[in-house]
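Hello, quick one for you while I still have it in my head. A protein chain has come my way and I'm curious about its shape. Can you walk me through what the C-alpha cells say about the fold? No rush at all, and the record is pasted right below.
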Amino acid sequence: MSKKNKLVVGQVGVANFGAYRRRQMKAAGCFDLVAVCDRNAEWLSAAAKEEGAKPYDDFEKMLSHPGLDGVV
C-alpha cells in the first residue's frame, strides 16, 4: 500500500499493549504512525525513535499535529 493510501494516525500509550498495537498497525500496512503520546518520558522517547514519529507528552498538543486522520 502506498503511503498516500494510508491513514495518518497518532497513538496514545506506547508501552506494553501500546507496543503490541504498534506492531499490529505495522503488520496491517495501512497506517502511517506520525505522532506518539505518553506520560512516561523513557517509553515515549523509545517509541518515537522506533517509529520515526513526533513525541508528545500532552494529548491536546498531539491532537493539533498536522494531517492526523485519527488517534489510536
